[in-house]
Write a structure and sequence with these properties.
Elements: E1 7-14, E2 24-30, E3 50-53, E4 61-64, H1 70-83, E5 90-94, H2 102-113, E6 118-122, H3 127-133, E7 139-143, H4 147-150, H5 157-167, E8 171-178, H6 184-197, E9 203-207, H7 219-230, E10 236-238, H8 242-246
Helix pairs in contact: 2-3, 3-5, 5-6, 6-7
């Protein structure tokens, strides 16, 4: 019997970021985070109850008491997959930071993976926790937190490097949020970090989304950062948060 888990919401939507952008996924948003990024728009505190869509993609929610049992989540996923065969590519574990719950996820993931491939969205700092669950993960989307956008007090470069080394055995990609204040030096450092592990790992430059709905970087600056990154890595792409443009969850 696996331990229950605190989950803020379960919903179905389009993945708006990174390598799987445009794919339909089942999202499980886990509460709690070890960072406090300046641009974050997600509530990370434990909440009761958990929001669950009444029907996949409806944006109409019912509420379930916390914490949720594995059987409950498997039941929800099974029903949605049966109702919409072939619609969902994978299940995305997002947060918060899912790897804070690596002990519980090590028991949950084999059961979830029987239903759909597993896509992990992570801030890329908990490399020891990554090693606990990596055998059950298919895709990893990790962040490199740039000081210019994330504003984290701690320098995270070495933790990101160790995480990327731990994740490289899977289909891993890296995302960095960039703004008009992002200097070329940060992009050069991020690219050097990636290249030191594997220069073929894809890098996604994600323009900062402002609370007013606009983008916090000019076209000229994003193109200059892309030009720099592309001179250092084999696969660099620019993708804004597509789910916000589509006005879906």
């Amino acid at each position: 019997m696996s331990d229950p888990l605190h989950i803020s919401e379960i919903f179905s939507s389009i993945q708006g970021e990174g390598l799987l952008a445009g794919r339909r996924q089942l999202f499980i948003r886990i509460v709690g985070c070890n960072l406090d990024c300046r641009y974050c728009d997600t509530e990370h505190q434990k909440v009761d109850p958990c929001r669950v869509e009444t029907r996949a993609g409806s944006a109409v929610f019912t509420r379930l008491s916390q914490p949720l049992a594995l059987d409950t989540v498997v039941g929800i996923m099974t029903d949605w997959i049966a109702a919409m065969p072939g619609a969902h590519h994978s299940v995305s574990l997002t947060g918060g930071e899912p790897l804070l719950c690596a002990d519980i996820l090590s028991a949950w993931l084999p059961e979830l993976r029987r239903l759909l491939p597993i896509h992990l969205e992570t801030n890329g700092t908990l490399y020891l926790a990554m090693e606990q669950v990596i055998e059950h993960i298919d895709y990893i989307s990790m962040d490199i937190k740039l000081p210019s956008t994330a504003g984290c007090q701690e320098q995270l470069w070495e933790r990101h490097r160790l995480f990327l080394r731990a994740a490289r055995s899977r289909n891993v990609s890296v995302k960095v949020v960039v703004s008009e204040d992002t200097p070329p030096g940060e992009i050069r450092q991020a690219c050097g970090l990636i290249a030191s592990v594997d220069p073929a790992i894809p890098l996604f430059l994600q323009p900062l989304s402002l609370s007013c709905g606009s983008i916090g970087i000019s076209g000229a600056h994003i193109l200059s950062l892309q030009e720099l990154a592309s001179s250092l890595l084999a696969d660099v792409r620019v993708i804004p948060q597509m789910h916000k443009l589509l006005r879906v969850l």
